[in-house]
Design a protein that fits this description.
The protein has helices at residues 14-23, 35-47, 58-68, 84-92, 108-117, 129-144, 177-188, 196-204, 212-226, and strands at residues 27-31, 51-55, 72-76, 99-103, 121-124, 151-154, 157-160, 165-168, 171-173, 193-195, 236-239, 243-246. By secondary structure, it is an alpha/beta fold. It has two domains: 14-144, Response regulator (Rossmann fold, 3-Layer(aba) Sandwich), CATH 3.40.50.2300; 151-246, Winged helix-like DNA-binding domain superfamily/Winged helix DNA-binding domain (Arc Repressor Mutant, subunit A). β8 and β9 form a beta hairpin. α3 packs parallel to α4, α4 runs parallel beside α5 and α7 packs across α9. The longest helix has 16 residues, at 129-144. The protein starts with 13 loop residues before the first helix and ends with a strand.
Length: 250
C-alpha cells in the first residue's frame, strides 16, 4: 500500500480539550505494518492527549496487548502473517478491549468478518482525525459504562430500560416486542457497528441469521417511529453492506 494523506489535523475545540483531560492516561495500541500510518496516528493521537504504543505485526500486537494493557486498539486488517481478523479472534478469547478496524474501501466482506470476530467499529482509509477521535471516545466511553445502566439518552431519544419505556421529544413511543428487542440490542452496543447477522442472532436466534429481509422491515418500522425524518436517520445509521449503528448524541 502507498502512503495515504489524512485530512483534519486541526486544533481541538473547547469540548474536545475537556475530553482530552479525561482521556490523558488512555493508552492506544496502533497495529499497522505501514510505518508512515503509525507515525501519523502517533502524532495525531498524541496531540489529543493519548499515550500511543505501536505494533507492526499481529504477533507483536498480541504481545503488546498482554504487556501494555491498552484501553483501545486501532487495528489494520491487511497485516502480514496473522491478519487483523485472526488477531481480533485471538484477543477476544481473553480480552474485551475495544478494537477499531482500519480498512481500505470496498472490502465489505472483510469488515463483516472482523465485526463478527469481535471488533467494535471500523474506519475506511483515508479518514479524518476528527472522525477517528470521535470514534475512540465513543468506544472507550461505551467500554466503561456498566451493563446495568438503566437509562439511555441520545438527543431527544430516551429509553428507560428498566421500565421498558421509550420516549422521543418527551412523547412516549409504542414499539412492538421485536422492535423493542432490536432497539435494546443497539443500545447495548451503542456507537458500535453491528452486522446483520449479529443483530438477527441476538433478536431471533442462531437459526435466523440469513433473514436479512425481516431485519430491514423491522429497522424501517423502528426508524419510522423514532426518527424525525426516517429517510435521513439521526439515530439508527446504516453501514452499507455491513449492518447498523446506533449513533450517540450529547
Amino acid at each position: 500500500m502507498g502512503v495515504i494523506a489524512f485530512p483534519g489535523l486541526a486544533e481541538a475545540s473547547v469540548n474536545e480539550q475537556l475530553e482530552q483531560r479525561e482521556m490523558q492516561k488512555s493508552r492506544i495500541l496502533i497495529v499497522d505494518d505501514e510505518q508512515a500510518i503509525r507515525r501519523f496516528l502517533r502524532t495525531a493521537l498524541g496531540v489529543h492527549g493519548y499515550e500511543v504504543f505501536e505494533a507492526s505485526t499481529g504477533e507483536d500486537a498480541i504481545r503488546q496487548v498482554v504487556n501494555v494493557r491498552p484501553d483501545l486498539i486501532i487495528l489494520d486488517l491487511g497485516l502480514p502473517g496473522m491478519n487483523g481478523i485472526e488477531v481480533t479472534k485471538r484477543i477476544r478469547e481473553w480480552a474485551q478491549t475495544p478494537i477499531i478496524i482500519l480498512s481500505v474501501q470496498n472490502q465489505e466482506s472483510d469488515k463483516i468478518a472482523a465485526l463478527d470476530a469481535g471488533a467494535d467499529d471500523y474506519l475506511t482509509k483515508p479518514f479524518g482525525v476528527g472522525e477517528l477521535t470521535a470514534r475512540l471516545r465513543v468506544a472507550m466511553r461505551h467500554a466503561r459504562q456498566s451493563d446495568a445502566e438503566p437509562i439511555f439518552s441520545s438527543g431527544d431519544l430516551r429509553v428507560d430500560l428498566m421500565a421498558r419505556v421509550v420516549t422521543r421529544a418527551g412523547e412516549e413511543v409504542a414499539l412492538t416486542p421485536t422492535e423493542y428487542d432490536l432497539l435494546r440490542v443497539l443500545i447495548r452496543h451503542a456507537g458500535r457497528v453491528l452486522t446483520h447477522q449479529q443483530l438477527l442472532k441476538e433478536i431471533r436466534g442462531a437459526g435466523y441469521q440469513t433473514e436479512t429481509h425481516l431485519l430491514r422491515v423491522h429497522m424501517s418500522n423502528l426508524r419510522r417511529k423514532l426518527e424525525r425524518d426516517p429517510s435521513n436517520p439521526q439515530y439508527i445509521l446504516t453501514e452499507p453492506g455491513v449492518g447498523y449503528r446506533l449513533r450517540v448524541e450529547a
